[in-house]
Design goal:
The chain is α+β, with helices and mostly antiparallel strands and 686 residues long. Helix content is 43%, strand content 23%. The strands form 6 sheets. A 5-stranded antiparallel sheet has the order 1-2-3-9-6. Strands 15-16-13-12-19 form a 5-stranded mixed sheet. Strands 20-22-21-23-24 form a 5-stranded mixed sheet, with helices on both faces.
Length: 686
């Protein structure tokens, strides 16, 4: 007896509805979640757990033409995928693995990306292989074309227990597994050399199976290490069996790289190798050493002429003004004492920089001016010297110290030695021509380079005194001592007080106002004590008591005030890495100025160039952005940005644009022509 067709259709529909839950329970892939530009889904290699405590999963991304996603280390921009397994059950861990990416460059920004589609295998470890595996996965990722869009996908999939067979996507997952980089041993590759010299990495790799011409032509190496590290495509030389790869390292100091080590992912045709790199620090080539030592010597000599050193020159000149008619030996002794003070200060700075690098801290030229205790100490020292010049007692060194410095225990030699030290410390806010290059070379290497370069800076800075010490007869051409010297001393003393006042303005941005007032009171007390010791013990005692009364306020209130809200005019906007990256991606012409309240060269650049109407008009033009970063206080992001460009001091000015995607680095001392020409080149108008 036949059944009506309608009844048969109804029966089949009911049967299908009954079977749907079973099919869903054994689903081996989720639906695509996303849109036409980017989407993601979760896959499994089997349709059941299969009685094992490990299951192979995979995330598959697809991107529209012109769109891409990012590797686990995205490069100079971008974000890697982040996975959240919250809500999953019977899951101990999920190990995500990445195939090798491709290097992509857009507007000068280099990223490591995936295009079209990519499959990321996952090895999941189960708590109990006899129980189901309900998976819930939240995936956050970034997809970019000319714009970047953040995506969020919530994926859910359950694998039942028991025996199962290959899932429909098992072959796709097998293809993804085959694309994963292997070990160096499996690839027959050996790392023969890994060395960092300056800011460059040199790798020598040996291959059991020679590279073909095609493999060598497309060879690339992706480096991972400190979070801020980036490196361009390597320069390749050598034979098919033994290659040498060289590349500059940006964004991370060698000390940080040595501490964390590196991971390399080599891509050469179908060869993909992931391997650890343990580099060693080697000395720079002899030619570089000779050049850098010469630059340091010249930079130290020029440092005598920088604006930030002019207030300190009074300490040097005063000892020479009164030297006419003195014995040659006495004049030579004072000059050598001042030079000794300069060398001691520079070598002390070298020791401090070396210790900071070995400890993994940030180093830079002039960063001690970010420390309140240093500023307070320098204000006190200047108050002592000013008091000595304004009619107070002469400054003398302890016998042991002055004897070691080659001087006599008291008198002019001790004062000359201290004046050399103070001159050096107050000169460090300046980054004279060649100083930044030499210091950057030294700080990018080890203690030996730091001491050598800082010693050459000291030799250049002390050269005028050493020259006069060799030819002390030249001093007789200076004016003879007389009553006029009293007025000169007073003028120099007032200049030192003005320098101390400037340091107090720098300190004001770092400490509580009450602590600032306490430092000012202590400085005045020291000034009064120096004058009072010459004119009567009672006056000195009163000044000392005033200083002691200010100490409790200093001890209790020595804390930084709340970070001030940055006030920018309509021209200058606050810098941040994100703001810079966004503007570079849009092809905007960008002028970046990194400055600080304690940087007198920065202030000179502003007065002489940056605040001029012609420059301000150019920076305010459509399509141009002026960014300013304030390094008055310690700021790791600014320090990292400077290090990435091989600089460890300020002023720092760089211009980006369509015509200069990698940036045009300007000299420490700006000129109107250099700024205008850099803006024209960045815009593409050479």
């Amino acid at each position: 007896m036949g059944y009506p067709l309608a009844i048969v259709k109804r029966f089949c529909a009911v049967l299908l509805l009954c079977l749907l839950p079973v099919a869903a329970a054994r689903a081996a892939a989720t639906d695509w979640i996303g849109d036409v530009n980017a989407a993601v889904r979760l896959l499994t290699a089997t349709d059941a757990i299969g009685g094992t405590d490990r299951v192979t999963l995979a995330l598959e991304f697809r991107f529209a033409p012109g769109w891409h996603g990012y590797w686990r280390t995205p490069g100079e921009a971008g974000l890697p995928p982040t996975l959240d397994w919250t809500g999953s059950q019977n899951l101990i861990s999920a190990d995500l693995r990445y195939p090798a990416p491709k290097r992509a460059v857009l507007l000068g920004i280099e990223t490591f990306a995936y295009e079209q589609s990519v499959l990321l295998p996952i090895e999941a470890k189960l708590l109990d292989a006899t129980q189901p595996l309900p998976l819930k996965l939240g995936v956050d990722y970034l997809a970019c074309a000319e714009i970047c869009v953040p995506y969020r996908a919530d994926l859910a999939l359950t694998l039942p227990p028991g025996a199962g067979g290959p899932a429909p996507e098992a072959a796709r997952i097998a293809e993804g597994l085959a694309l994963l980089p292997g070990s160096a041993d499996a690839a027959g590759m050996t790392v023969e050399e890994a060395a960092i010299s300056g800011d460059r990495l040199r790798l020598t790799l040996a291959f059991a199976t020679p590279l073909t011409a095609t493999e060598r032509a497309g060879l690339d190496l992706f480096l991972e290490g400190p979070a801020s590290l980036t490196a361009p495509r390597p320069e390749v030389s050598g034979s098919a069996r033994r290659l040498t790869l060289e590349m500059p390292l940006k964004g991370a100091a060698p000390a940080d790289i040595l501490k964390t080590g590196l991971t390399g992912t080599l891509v050469a045709g179908e060869r993909r190798v992931e391997f650890p790199i343990a580099p060693v620090l080697v000395a720079a080539p002899a030619g570089n050493w000779a050049v850098m030592l010469g630059l340091a010597l010249l930079g130290g000599l020029i440092l005598n002429l920088m604006p930030c050193v002019l207030p300190v020159l009074s300490l040097k000149l005063l000892g020479l003004v009164g030297s006419g008619g003195r014995a040659t030996a006495a004049v030579r002794g004072d000059l050598l004492a001042a030079a000794a003070g300069i060398f001691v200060s520079f070598l002390t700075l070298a020791g401090a920089a070396s210790a900071l690098k070995l400890a993994g801290g940030a180093v830079g030229w002039g960063i001690q001016f970010q420390q309140p205790w240093f500023l307070a100490g320098m204000v006190g020292v200047l108050a002592l010297f000013a008091g000595s010049l304004l009619g107070g007692r002469e400054i003398a060194l302890p016998v042991a110290v002055s004897s070691w410095a080659g001087g006599i225990g008291r008198g002019s030699r001790g004062e000359s030695f201290l004046s050399g030290m103070v001159a050096t410390l107050l000169a460090t806010p300046c980054s004279a021509p060649f100083v930044g290059t030499a210091v950057g070379f030294a700080l990018a290497q080890g203690p030996a380079a730091i001491f050598a370069i800082f010693g050459a800076l000291a030799l250049g800075f002390a050269a005028p005194f050493l020259l006069l010490a060799v030819f002390p007869g030249w001093v007789r051409f200076l004016p003879k001592p007389g009553a006029w010297m009293l007025w000169v001393k007073r003028g120099f003393g007032l200049a030192l007080l003005a320098t101390g006042g400037w340091l107090l303005t720098v300190l004001a941005a770092l400490v509580d106002p009450l602590a600032l007032a306490a430092v000012g009171i202590l400085a005045l007390a020291l000034l009064g004590a120096m004058i009072g010791l010459r004119r009567g013990v009672a006056a000195a005692a009163v000044a000392g008591l005033i200083g002691i009364a200010a100490l409790p306020s200093l001890a209790v209130r020595w804390a930084p005030p709340p970070a001030p809200v940055a006030v920018h005019d309509t021209l200058w906007q606050p810098w941040s890495p994100d703001a810079l990256d966004a503007a570079r991606a849009e092809g905007t012409v960008i002028f970046l100025d990194i400055t600080a309240d304690w940087c007198l060269t920065c202030k000179a650049n502003k007065l002489a160039v940056l605040d001029r109407d012609a420059v301000r008009s150019a920076l305010a033009a459509p399509g141009t952005l002026a960014l300013r970063a304030d390094w008055t206080r310690p700021n790791p992001a600014i320090a990292a940005f400077l290090n990435r460009h091989g600089r460890y001091g300020i002023p720092f000015n760089i211009v980006y644009g369509p015509g200069a995607p990698e940036g045009l680095l300007l000299p420490e001392l700006l000129t109107l022509d250099s700024v205008q020409e850099a803006l024209r080149r960045a815009e593409g108008k050479s």
